[in-house]
């Protein structure tokens, strides 16, 4: 006797509703069209440069970071739009009260909404494989790099999506939730970067004042692990150069073998840390939804 696969009811509902609309199909087509335009522009610039200075095939390797960065930026904008209206949209349509009367737990609601957003992300990533493959065929990249990059996008989608669902549960209007999601994302990037560089500057100033040689940021470099985009940067760096953030820290003068060992596995540690933060956002969102249910 076969067992019935249990599917999150919220995810199932979102998939059924989404399959009846052409809006997401148009969005995916538009995103892929934009990627195709980027490819054509890069190839045109490369050919123009070849006519003047001779053809340099190594320049085609820049297709990878250009397309990868472009797709990362697009997902960072699209995912907040999708997820930030997940709870607030139900509230605006006055369907949240009905949803809260069901036996579905608030956490399952949050996870289901995130799951539906990730399905859209997966659809987009699959549809973009032919365009992204151009960078790997012309740039000489391996297929593991392509699918590894997609893995980074899925991780980033979960993180940004959880922030969007949290904001959607806190703010009543979808537009305001979208703005808040993007603001939190930018805030995390700016705060981690500024805090890191301030600490490095202070360390360097203290060491210089005492006449010592500055040996790099050391353990303070792990501040950047809180930046959700740092694993993506480390991955691209490894694909392009063969070395990651660990190599940068070593060249900066870091001597500790423990710090270098952790930095050499930057992607693993940063992804695990940020997934825990993502889980925290989902828990906070579920508590807010539960508070709404209890209030009713």
How would you describe this structure to a colleague?
The chain is an all-alpha fold and 296 residues long. The protein has one domain. The chain is 76% helix and 0% strand. The chain has 13 helices and no strands. Helix 6 runs antiparallel to helix 8 (143-170) and helix 8 (143-170) packs across helix 9. The longest helix has 36 residues, at 174-209. The mean pLDDT is 81.
Key terms for this structure?
single chain; mainly alpha; 13 helices
Kindly summarize this structure in a few lines:
This protein has 296 residues and is mainly α.
Poorly predicted runs are none
The profile of the biggest β sheet is: none
Find the count of extended strands (DSSP E, 2+ residues): 0
H-E order: HHHHHHHHHHHHH
Number of helices: 13
Q: Which structural category fits the helices and strands?
A: mainly alpha
Question: What level of helicity do the residues show?
Answer: over 70%
Number of discrete domains: 1
Rg from Cα: 22 Å
Distance between the termini: 42 Å
Shape: globular
Please report which band the strand proportion falls in: under 5%, 5-15%, 15-25%, 25-35%, 35-45% or over 45%.
under 5%
Task: Write the topology of this structure.
Elements: H1 9-19, H2 23-53, H3 63-83, H4 88-92, H5 96-100, H6 106-127, H7 129-138, H8 143-170, H9 174-209, H10 230-241, H11 245-251, H12 257-264, H13 266-295
Helix pairs in contact: 1-6, 2-3, 2-6, 2-7, 3-6, 3-7, 3-8, 3-9, 6-8, 6-13, 8-9, 8-10, 8-13, 10-13, 11-12
């Amino acid at each position: 006797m076969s067992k019935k696969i249990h599917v999150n009811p919220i995810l199932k509902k979102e998939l059924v509703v989404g399959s009846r609309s052409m809006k997401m199909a148009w969005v995916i087509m538009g995103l892929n069209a934009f990627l195709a335009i980027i490819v054509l522009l890069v190839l045109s610039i490369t050919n123009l440069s070849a006519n003047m200075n001779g053809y340099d095939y190594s320049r085609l390797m820049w297709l990878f970071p250009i397309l990868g960065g472009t797709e990362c930026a697009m997902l960072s904008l699209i995912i907040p739009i999708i997820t930030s209206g997940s709870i607030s949209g139900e509230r605006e349509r006055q369907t949240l009260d009905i949803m809260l009367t069901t036996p579905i737990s608030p956490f399952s609601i949050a996870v289901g909404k995130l799951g539906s957003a990730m399905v859209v992300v997966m659809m987009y990533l699959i549809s973009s494989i032919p365009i992204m493959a151009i960078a790997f065929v012309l740039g000489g990249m391996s297929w593991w790099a392509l699918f590894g990059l997609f893995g980074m996008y899925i991780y980033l989608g979960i993180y940004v999506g959880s922030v969007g669902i949290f904001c959607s549960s806190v703010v009543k209007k979808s537009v305001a939730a979208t703005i808040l999601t993007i603001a939190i994302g930018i805030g995390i990037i700016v705060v981690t970067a500024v805090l890191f560089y301030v600490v490095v500057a202070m360390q360097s100033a203290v060491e210089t004042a005492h006449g010592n040689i500055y040996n790099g940021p050391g353990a303070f470099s792990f501040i950047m692990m809180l930046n959700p985009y740092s694993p993506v940067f480390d991955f691209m760096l490894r694909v392009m150069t063969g070395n990651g953030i660990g190599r940068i820290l070593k060249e900066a003068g870091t001597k500790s073998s423990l710090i270098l060992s952790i930095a050499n596995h930057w992607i693993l540690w940063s992804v695990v840390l940020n997934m825990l933060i993502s889980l925290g956002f989902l828990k906070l969102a579920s508590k807010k939804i539960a508070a709404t249910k209890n209030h009713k």
